[in-house]
């Protein structure tokens, strides 16, 4: 079945450091790809998405490019802030499924220290 | 800004008891979902619901689980006889449509603890 694998966490960085969180996927068709973020005590929020190969999703300084050849959707940010501390989830969705469920990775806890 | 709400935020129950987790989706949304996350594990899909019926369910969603939209605003998940392994964070989500252009909005979750 479809699956998503994220790099193992947690990740701890200093403010203004470069962030990469790796995400790879396995799917039988052509999924749409998403990054969700969960701040403490809150629900999952959509951070960015890409719906086809070579698309780049971006939001709040975060970017991820849909790489079909490597089945990857790595999340990057050039300069992290303390406020970016959260759990980040990579996910895919196949529109062919009747309910369009999201399939999530394990989540990566990011802590940014001042 | 409209949001998905869930109650209670934390539910503690004894093994074998029935629990009902409640969600109020965003008002003009048509598709509703339940996901769960066992501590330290992935967020897993349980069930999707559209037009007053289940549109898809995972293998986790066995006969112990049921969903209902009893009135036009609430969307509930019932677990008939809870097991220790049902302890998890349960997330409700809703969306207007199923294309990738329609974001799934998530609630803050209900933490279920089965003793």
Count of DSSP E strands of chain B? 11
| SSE string of chain B, helices as H and strands as E | EEEEEEEEEEE
Query: So how many helices of chain A?
Result: 0
What is the global morphology of chain B?
globular
Mean pLDDT of chain A: 92
Largest β-sheet summary of chain B: 7 strands, mixed
Low-confidence stretches of chain A: none
Q: Supply Rg of chain A.
A: 14 Å
Task: Give the count of helical stretches of chain B.
Answer: 0
- As a percent range, the share of strand residues of chain B is over 45%
- First-residue to last-residue Cα separation of chain B: 37 Å
Mean pLDDT of chain B: 93
Write down the oligomeric state.
Answer: heterodimer
The general outline of chain A is globular
Number of strands of chain A: 12
Please characterize this protein's 3D structure:
The complex is a heterodimer of chains A (114) and B (115). Chain A has 114 residues and is an all-beta fold. Helix content of chain A is 0%, strand content 50%. Chain A has strands spanning 3-6, 11-14, 19-21, 23-26, 32-38, 44-50, 56-59, 62-65, 75-77, 86-93, 102-104, 108-113. In chain A, strands 2, 5, 6, 10, 11 and 12 form a six-stranded mixed β-sheet that branches. Chain A has a four-stranded antiparallel β-sheet with strand order 3-9-8-7, with no helix packed on it. In chain B, strands 2, 4, 5, 6, 9, 10 and 11 form a seven-stranded mixed β-sheet that branches. A four-stranded antiparallel β-sheet of chain B has the order 1-3-8-7, with no helix packed on it. In chain B, 0% of the residues lie in helices and 50% in strands. Chain B contains no helices and eleven strands. Chain B has 115 residues and is mainly beta. Chains A and B meet through β6, β10 and β11 of A and β4, β5, β9 and β10 of B.
Please provide a brief summary of the model:
The complex is a heterodimer of chains A (114) and B (115). Chain A has 114 residues and is mainly beta. Chain A has strands at residues 3-6, 11-14, 19-21, 23-26, 32-38, 44-50, 56-59, 62-65, 75-77, 86-93, 102-104, 108-113.
């Amino acid at each position: 079945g479809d699956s998503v694998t994220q790099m193992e966490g947690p990740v701890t960085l200093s403010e203004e450091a470069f962030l990469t969180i790796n995400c790879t996927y396995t799917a039988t068709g052509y999924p749409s790809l998403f990054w969700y973020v969960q701040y403490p005590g809150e629900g999952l929020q959509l951070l960015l998405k890409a719906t086809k190969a070579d698309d780049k999703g971006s939001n709040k300084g975060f970017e991820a490019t849909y790489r079909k050849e490597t089945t990857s959707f790595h999340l990057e940010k050039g300069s992290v802030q303390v406020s970016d501390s959260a759990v980040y989830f990579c996910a895919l969705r196949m529109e062919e499924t009747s309910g369009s469920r999201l399939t999530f990775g394990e989540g990566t806890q990011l802590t940014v220290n001042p | 800004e409209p949001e998905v709400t869930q109650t209670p935020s934390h539910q503690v129950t004894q093994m074998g008891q029935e629990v009902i987790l409640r969600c109020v989706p965003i008002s003009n949304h048509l598709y509703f979902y339940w996901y769960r996350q066992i501590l330290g594990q992935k967020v897993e899909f349980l069930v999707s619901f559209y037009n007053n019926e289940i549109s898809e369910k995972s293998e986790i969603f066995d006969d112990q689980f049921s969903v209902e939209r009893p009135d036009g605003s609430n969307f509930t998940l019932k677990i008939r006889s809870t097991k220790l392994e049902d302890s998890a964070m349960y997330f409700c989500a809703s969306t207007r449509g199923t294309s990738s252009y329609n974001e799934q909005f998530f609630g803050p979750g209900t933490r279920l603890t089965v003793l």
